[in-house]
Specification:
Number of helices: 17
Strand content: 5-15%
Number of domains: 2
Structural class: mainly alpha
Distance between the termini: 75 Å
Helix content: 40-55%
Strand order of the largest sheet: 4-3-5
Amino acid sequence: MPRGADWLVELSGQGQGGVSVRSLLEELYEQAGSSKEWGLIRYISGILRKRVEVLAEACTDLISHHKQLTVGLPPEPRERVITVPLPPEELNDLIYEASGQDISIAVLTQEIMVYLAMYVRSQPALFGDMLRLRIGLIMQVMATELARSLHCSGEEASESLMSLSPFGMKSLLHHILSGKEFGVERSVRPIQSTATSPAISIHELGHTGATKTERTGIHKLKREIKQRCSSPSTPSGILSPVGAGPGDGQLHWEERQGQWLRRRRLDGAINRVPSGFYQKVWKILQKCHGLSIDGYVLPSSTTREMTEGEIKFAVQVESVLNHVPQPEYRQLLVETMMVLGLVADVDVDSIGGIIHKDPATGICNFFYDSAPVAASAPCTYLSKATITYLQDFLPGSSCLMQ
């Protein structure tokens, strides 16, 4: 006979009647709630397959704000995409299926979905540059941030994440969504507290020193390309390193080791893209046969079927990008396409056939961790690589790279 939640346990001796495991867990759940043992509360919720009452409403709110959701960790088919509102039980079953054997992920997914819905209602500007919210990746990057800040292992970070109070969980999620720098540290609980789980404090450190546009270095690069490619008086058309001017000295935020890797990882996890990104991709597709990422092709015919501002087109772009499981690499691909978009703005008829971007190539960690506007920034290398790759299609010799 299978021993599940309805199994009877004889606590008072044989023949005295038994108590179901479910009843014992419910009792323990109430005691954990009184003691604010959040990790234990979430764990028992997973065992009992509890569902947040407003889960379906939260999902509907997010979708009504034109956001798609994914649950589970990438890649597909383990990561499941939600594009339409679902009935409560169906949504709950989908979350548990996508979470596999890890009930903790299922419980946390529900909680994060509810918090995302709260923020999309109260602060919709936080989601302005996001189309698809990948809850599995968001949880993964939350645990990564805890591991980095608390100097602990991944397993300890996962336990700390599960033990965060609801306020702490919402605060950590908000800091990740906002794009601001934040710190995490252990703190001391009040003397009267009966909780045994470690207390964690999450606080803002101030501005990162760069706006979302500055993080990609696009404005500066756009000026460079237009100046070099449109001016016949340019001697050799050398594209100078982005941010290499006399007034662009090493900035304070560039000196923080690991910050830009973290920023790309965070932005990639929440699928944040620069303003006008999808329109740039649309223009690229008009001047080539397609974009290939990890073997998945976004064909140029897409531009004949959809307009550049259509949500359906943005979804198509995201469906290809989301085949890249590493969020930091995804963000580099976004930066690369922004550079390609600048080249597509130049008055050329074509920029080649199918343009390939293969995530299988190894990338140096320092490249991920370079500030976009530094002299050794990814934008500098990406722009040089792009112009070199496409120089046969560019007008004259004014865009030759050295």
